[in-house]
């Protein structure tokens, strides 16, 4: 299993460390050619506007978008969710526009409003896991083929649509590996 982590900006090393703990080969993706021979990719949290600009500047945007449309497994955490969304409620800028979701940026407020909760997500694991929210977005609308995995206070914070996974929260900032295991399983079953 060889999984890439988009390494233009944001929480890259934390995802890499979790993947290595699960015996995955990892690659930091900064150039279009580094998308080859991967089983999936993680788009980390960070600053979505900055990452979006860098995707265009490096030539990664079109190639990554095409691969995702063709079934390449992708997981966007926080800013990564915003990059995947077809619609963003409070921003005129759109990025890849591949996932049938509408996202509200910074929906939980500023950095000072960050929080952690414990929640059981049935499709992912059998026990409660920690969910870390930092200047997090949430999803305000999904289309019919988007499966809602988790809500917090009626706000949608985790979804899956075919080969695409998106979370408002940051599993990479905890010691829990369940979400990374879930994504690895998606990569094993989806893109062969």
From TrEMBL:
EC number: 4.3.3.6, 3.5.1.2
TM region(s), chain numbering: none
Keywords for the protein's UniProt record, in alphabetical order: Glutamine amidotransferase, Hydrolase, Lyase, Pyridoxal phosphate
Binding site for L-glutamine: 46-48, 105, 134-135
Catalyzed reaction equations: aldehydo-D-ribose 5-phosphate + D-glyceraldehyde 3-phosphate + L-glutamine = pyridoxal 5'-phosphate + L-glutamate + phosphate + 3 H2O + H(+); L-glutamine + H2O = L-glutamate + NH4(+)
Pathway field: Cofactor biosynthesis; pyridoxal 5'-phosphate biosynthesis
Positions annotated as active site in the UniProt record: 78 (nucleophile), 170 (charge relay system), 172 (charge relay system)
GO molecular function annotations of the record: glutaminase activity; pyridoxal 5'-phosphate synthase (glutamine hydrolysing) activity
Superkingdom of source: Bacteria
InterPro entries cross-referenced by the UniProt entry: Class_I_gatase-like, PdxT/SNO, PdxT/SNO_CS
Role of this protein: Catalyzes the hydrolysis of glutamine to glutamate and ammonia as part of the biosynthesis of pyridoxal 5'-phosphate. The resulting ammonia molecule is channeled to the active site of PdxS.
Family (UniProt): Belongs to the glutaminase PdxT/SNO family.
Assembly: In the presence of PdxS, forms a dodecamer of heterodimers. Only shows activity in the heterodimer.
Official protein name in the record: Pyridoxal 5'-phosphate synthase subunit PdxT
Species of the source: Clostridium moutaii
Protein encoded by which gene: pdxT
């Amino acid at each position: 299993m060889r999984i890439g982590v988009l390494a233009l900006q944001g929480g890259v090393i934390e995802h890499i460390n979790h993947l290595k703990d699960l015996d995955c080969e990892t690659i930091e993706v900064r150039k279009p050619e580094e998308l080859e021979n991967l089983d999936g990719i993680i788009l980390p949290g960070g600053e979505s506007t900055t990452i979006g600009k860098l995707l265009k500047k490096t030539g990664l945007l079109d190639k990554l978008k095409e691969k995702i449309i063709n079934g390449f497994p992708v997981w966007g955490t926080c800013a990564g969710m915003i990059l995947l969304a077809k619609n963003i409620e409070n921003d005129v800028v759109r990025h890849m526009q591949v996932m049938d979701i509408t996202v509200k940026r910074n929906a939980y407020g500023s950095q000072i409003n960050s929080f952690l909760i414990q929640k059981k997500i049935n499709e992912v694991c059998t026990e409660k896991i920690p969910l870390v929210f930092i200047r997090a977005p949430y999803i305000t609308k999904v289309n019919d083929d988007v499966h809602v995995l988790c809500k917090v206070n009626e706000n949608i914070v985790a979804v899956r649509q075919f080969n695409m996974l998106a979370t408002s929260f940051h599993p990479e900032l905890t010691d829990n590996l369940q979400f990374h295991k879930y994504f690895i399983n998606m990569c094993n079953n989806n893109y062969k």
